[in-house]
Amino acid sequence: MSIGSANETTADPVPMFHPHAPRPGDPVPHIPSMAHYRAMYEESVTKPDVFFGKLAQDLLSWHKPFNQVSHGNFHEGNISWFVDGQVNACYNCVDRHALVNPNKVAIIWEADEMDHHRSITYGEVLAEVSRLANVLLKYGVRRGHAVAIYMPMVPEAVYAMLACARIGAVHSVVFAGFSADALRDRMLDAKCRLLITADQGKRGGKTIQLKNIADEALAECPAVHTVIVFQRTNDKSVPFHPPRDIWWHEETSNQRPYCPCTPMNSEDPLFMLYTSGSTGKPKGVLHTTAGYLLGATATTKYIFDLHEGDVHACMADVGWITGHSYIVYGPLSNGATTVVFESIPTYPNAGRYWDLVDKHKVTSFYTAPTAIRALRRLGDDFVKPYDLSSLRILGSVGEPINPDAWMWYHAIVGRSRCAIVDTYWQTETGSIIITPLPGCTPTKPGSATLPFFGVDVAVLDPQTGEELKGNGVTGVLAVRNSFPSIARTIYDNHARYMDTYLLPYKGFYFSGDGVSRDEDGYYWVRGRVDGTFHSLFESTQDYIVRLLTSRSAPLDVINVAGHRLSTAEIESALIKHPACAEAAVVGVPDDLTGQAIVCFCTLKSSDLDNKTLSAALTAQVRAHIGPFATPKRIIITPDLPKTRSGKIMRRILRKVAGREVVQEDLQDDAILKIKLGDLSTLADPAVVALLINSVADRL
Length: 699
Ligand code: WTA
What we know:
By secondary structure, the protein is of the alpha/beta class.
């Protein structure tokens, strides 16, 4: 079965944008034509060992060369690459450039304060990273130990990651917008014994009390014996508890500015990064050293078409995978200059990004559709005053980009002469897997276009798992055959890795996203499958759940402003509130953020009015997860729609929350049935009216 033809969603003729010839003075792209792309792609999927063997030798510096390129497969879940080789990620990102070109700028730091920026050379990065690595060694961190990093967007966050990589420690960066509870859960799960944090963070003129939040988390993490505190603001009121707490500046100043790199086996873990899964418990996606580094290095080189002198500015936070791969590992491994941006796109005004591009002569710029949409709304006048002529490549990541936002990015920011790269990938894939190549791939606004080298994309029938061959098909996005940067496991829970990614469709990696392949073979990623195709996928979900050994449903992940959130995680935050009896959370379409969070809650008895309760429940979610998970609406309702077996029917909640069914529809059963689908499994049909009325009350 196919779930609709690609043409349904791309009915209007889509303009094709053909690459321009390079401007005089601009470099010739690394992949100069579609013929080159096709030949390389063909080799990469038909002879992956030959292709990646060569690439790994060309792009990485090895402590010990490998003989075997790949081993294992998706059937067995035992993927490994370059197994008998040895490599160090920090050596590749720092030393090999610092040793030949110590004065080249590695990092440009653009602080939250508009007039405050700093350039740091590769030579300086080597010294700073070494000093910190020596501090880690002094406090007992050894190869294989997990280190938590909870830092603002300062160069020291990058040093912290690289210092871990240098000595073989496994970093677990926790986004600085996460709450104390979330930080605690992640430190406990990873069994961290050391935390690197800062006194405070600055963002959009606001101060974030990082050390206070960390202290709250640490109260329940007795295993963390050392906390390295970087002074960002030097606010004297920040609590400091020796001997557990030590100052970054004091400790590093006592250390030698060189620390030898530990040669790591290719498959030694490099880092873990927690991402939302379908259950309340976040999963620690684990990436290994050589494969991840190769993926990050190769994609950055080819997709941002890096050449000598280029300045790459990725606006993500190092707390997300985009920051790991495209602020830290990818650009630095290529010896490029990378921008670390501490602020937000609208501070002090909506020209901030463009001021940054102009000031630092940025050549490739990478951000999320949510930011593009928000800036577009604020008007072109914020873009116009700036000289953006340094830009060659504009990237988008994190969610589907709607054609209007794409066109604005292209015409207003790119002045119709930059390559737009809509890059599709995930925390689990480690690096970009579907993308145009600048100067090479003709683009269509809204399509991530074609697979990157080595990624053999398959569109599967969600129910039968059969591959939908040919063009003009829609189904679930899967990948056949492993590629170097794919995550190897979920930390301490390989069964969950198998259940989530490799068992739903035997022999394939299952992405959790829906996708269309149009008549030209271009991919259109539709987002997490529970969102876009919910009416169909409710049954698919049942199907997949049946396949799985675990009790978890794999698809309840929503994407809000490019951040992946689990509905179950938000629900478990809500029901911790004493007044909340039951909670069901759904994503609804939102013009700005792609999807927004709507929470339905039933109450235990409570004296509070609904407005006060909604505020309290919102605060509960912010405290449990973080401010970026703030619900758009909390709907207090007398009941939730359930099947006779007690399963919440989210399909109904989504439609009610998205106002696809309204009070007038209650008059007509036939209309209700058309809009809501089959309601025969609903235990109490009266609940539909209750819900619709609760939503109407709330407006
Ligand atoms: C979505 C972020 C459409 C998708 C790198 C995926 C996208 C999830 C795109 C991963 C894109 C990412 N077009 N959807 N270009 N890029 N997504 O793990 O649903 O935070 O599964 O990784 O974001 O989010 P994650």
